[in-house]
Specification:
Blueprint (H helix, E strand, L loop, with lengths): L1 H37 L7 E2 H4 L14 E8 L5 E8 L2 E12 L6 E9 L11 E9 L15 E2 L4 H5 L10 E4 L23 H43 L5
Parallel strand pairs: 1-2, 3-7, 5-8
Antiparallel strand pairs: 2-4, 2-6, 3-4, 4-5, 6-8
Helix pairs in contact: 1-4
Amino acid sequence: MKRLIGFTALALVLVAIAGALGAWQLRAWQDRRESEARDLTQLTPVPLREVMGPDDPFPGTDLGRPVSLEGEWLPGGAFYVSDREHAGTAGLWLVVPLAVGAATDPAIPVVLGWTEDVDPSLVPTGAGSLTGWLQPPEGNGSFDDDPSDDVVPQLRTADAIQRVDNDLYSAYAVATSPSAGLSPAPLDALPEVGWFSALRNLLDALERWFFGGFAAFVWWRWLRDEQAVRTAASAARQIDDAPSVD
């Protein structure tokens, strides 16, 4: 019995250690992938014109990059994007185009933050200066059931350009710090993580779990063999103890 208890305790300890080490490696794999996805967002901001021009397509390699923006707000082009959540509450994004440079220069729509209701008093005017994360225009196929209002279902360049006389960049920016009276708007798109990012950590996790499974298998085989030996010994004793027939 002591041998059974000791071997079982050893097997449990090995399985527990292997499981814990595997879970640790899995967390390291997840953390490294999440860190890679945030890498661009942590870079030092650069002027928008160093990343893309007004007529350039969206630079996919700069998804999420912080850019510094300076120019003039175009309050007449302000609009709201519906079905945006913050802390579990449905609301709107406030978007205001910013003419990068003078008031007549090409503009970029800027998500200034989240609000629960339409509030024109939150729309800025005059000169603007901020840092924002660069994002591609949306295009989820949503239908605007009321084109006459200032609320749209997605942030598309085609919708924004109808509200201003300026040319628009083929991108929008999410303010890294929300304007007064607004809550932060989360990033909808981050850089994609490569398939092989932190692969070693994932393989190490699988290796630890394989070792734990192997230890459990060895314990099960030992227990089965031990039981078979006990059963055979018990049967032999029964035969030896059986009364002989003369």
